[in-house]
Amino acid sequence: EPEVTQTPSHQVTQMGQEVILRCVPISNHLYFYWYRQILGQKVEFLVSFYNNEISEKSEIFDDQFSVERPDGSNFTLKIRSTKLEDSAMYFCASDGGSGAYNEQFFGPGTRLTVL
Amino acid sequence: GQSLEQPSEVTAVEGAIVQINCTYQTSGFYGLSWYQQHDGGAPTFLSYNGLDGLEETGRFSSFLSRSDSYGYLLLQELQMKDSASYFCAVRAPNQAGTALIFGKGTTLSVSS
Predict the structure, then answer these.
(1) Separation between Cα atoms, residue B97 and residue A50, nearest integer Å
(2) In the predicted model, what is the mean pLDDT of residues A20-31?
(3) Cβ neighbours of B104 in A, within 8 Å
(4) In percent, how much of chain B has pLDDT > 90?
């Protein structure tokens, strides 16, 4: 069964450093998303991406964040200068394949720890 | 904006039935989805209601009343493996590319 994959599973970085989180969405999906979940809290939407551009973003997704689809399979989230409060689980998701729009498929997540 | 309310915790025993309620406030009409999450793992889709009524998938059922801005997830014949967090979420129905807005989640603990 197709699945969303994410790398790395765990990233530890120093405050102020840049990190890139990587995702491979399901191959025939059209829409891609990033969400984050701070430990013990709810899943929060960051950004959605379609046709090589951002289609929607939340207040959390400020100038420190960017997304890119560098090739036909990868979808990345970059945080330019990490802050302590960026420590969270980051989930990638995708949907829109074969006209099925009701279910977003989530990857296993990357746990980002900022020291 | 959108906001969703659901109970923070529910406890039950194996074999029981549990209902997790969700009320929402949205600026427009949205379908209601339910996701399951084990121990910080990936949220896993359980069900979606775009119209009023009951959707049944095995031991899980979900209900939506748009006029009441209310829905629920019903879990029957509870098993230990059902211990997890359950999130309701809203998005524009049948519209791809729109964000899921999640509630804070309900932690279900199933005991033997």
Answers:
(1) 7
(2) 93
(3) 41-42
(4) 75
